[in-house]
Amino acid sequence: MPKHPPLQTERARTLRENQSDAEQLLWRSLRSRQLEGCKFRRQHGIGSYIVDFVCIEAGLVVELDGGQHAEQLAYDAVRTEKLAAAGYRVLRFWNNEVLTNLEGVLESLRLELLPSPQPSPQRGEGVRQSGSSLPPPQGREGVDGAGYQTPSPLRGEGWGEGKP
């Protein structure tokens, strides 16, 4: 049984074949795990929606909006709310922003994809014991078996190897 209804699959295929200039430009930077090693899909079905780009493992949807979206703000708000209810974070960019400031758009995406750094413990606080009533920090990568966030050496937050 197909994952998506045949009409939705055909519509997504048509959208992929007829991408806007902004979608083509952004796709060149997202495809083949070029951005932080994350796999993005383009014109992908989620529920009854077809989103412009999605990184499923990060739960991140990227939508590019052209001039027509100025008239459909209410629809976009409902769509964003439903995607959020399904566990996705939604980032929206104007086509013009992608075309004139691609590096800024990519930096925004990087910040969403990378785990946020954990603040240093305050004096008197140490490593949380497994019996703590607080939930473990959330994150995609860099989470050890107990669910605790570990520094990412990719962001220069390793365990001090090499340099003092």
What does this structure look like?
The chain has 164 residues and is of the alpha+beta class. The protein is built from five helices and four strands. It has helices spanning 6-17, 21-30, 73-85, 95-100, 102-113, and strands at residues 41-46, 49-55, 60-65, 89-94. Strands 1-2-3-4 form a four-stranded mixed sheet, sandwiched between helices. The longest helix is centred in the middle third of the chain and has 13 residues, at 73-85. It is globular, with a radius of gyration of 19 Å. Residues 126-164 have low confidence and may be disordered.
What is the CATH topology of the domain at 6-113? Answer: Endonuclease, Chain A
How far apart the termini lie comes to 56 Å
Cα-based radius of gyration, to the nearest Å: 19 Å
The side-by-side strand order for the widest beta sheet comes to 1-2-3-4
What CATH first level of the domain at 6-113 would be assigned? Alpha Beta
Order of helices and strands: HHEEEHEHH
Largest sheet: 4 strands, mixed
Approximate shape: globular
Structural class: alpha+beta
CATH 2nd-level architecture of the domain at 6-113? 3-Layer(aba) Sandwich
Q: How much helical structure, as a percent, in the residues?
A: 25-40%
User: How many helices?
Assistant: 5
The CATH superfamily of the domain at 6-113 turns out to be: VSR Endonuclease
Overall mean pLDDT score? Answer: 77
Beta-strand level of the residues, as a percent range? 15-25%
Number of strands: 4
**Poorly predicted ranges:** 126-164
